[in-house]
Amino acid sequence: MSKNKLLAQGVASLEAEAAQRVSRVPRAADANRDPALPHQIQPTEALTVASTLVPPPFETSTLDGMDEAKQVETLEAAYWDADRTEVRSFQLAKMRGSLLKGELLQLLLDRRAHEHRGLTVGDYAESLEIKRQYVYDLIGAAKDIRALAPLIEETSTPVVASQAAVLAPIYKADPEAAGLVLQGAKDSGKLSAASLTEAARELGLLPPADTPDPKPAPRAPASPSDTVGRLAFADAYKVLAPKRIELLVQDNPAAVLDQAEAIEAEITKIQRRVEAAKKAAQKAIAAEA
User: Where is this region: Disordered (predicted)?
Assistant: First the structure.
């Protein structure tokens, strides 16, 4: 047998042996998934099956036999279903991105990757095309999302970083209550951080939103002494706000009276110090003259 034939047989034998080794590598249930990759970064079905990237057109044959009004109703329902699919796909992509990037950034910081590159954390963040603060924002978001994983899986509802920031503390205290908050936000018609906050307030899990008192237009102080006076009485002015006193009087007028008298006594002490400060200033001015 010639040398070339022996070489060809040897190559063929090695290829066959390699093929057998590959065939023995365990495969995931989904043939498109690579068992060598961690589950967190496995490609999704939509990305691995080309036929699912572009959905088929709406099957107009489903409209056969319907009157015009029913056809319109069916098409509108399909439109809103497509709209919900679009929003959910965006939410899912954002959630996965925040989770994976945040956890990887934490691992990089734990290993002081910036020092390996001879950079500060800020410069290292710039090399990743993000700001330094965003590094920590992503890490925090990843922790929130990871904590919410059971709720996300149970409800099949992906949440983005801002929504996770609202839900995570509630879930930590009471998982069942967090589920009610999530459902309430979804029932409002739009899942957002604002709708989650509102749902939590309606359930008494968060304090109601503050309604600030109207603020008077700012004015320049007439003199330095005017500034001193306004600073001295600032705290008392806030405590004795009319709306606040009106509510407190209805609940416990005696307590309001005690508080007012205590403030009055404190103001008297402050006023004495103001007078002493004025005299000291006047004395110093006279000495300079």
Answer: 205-227
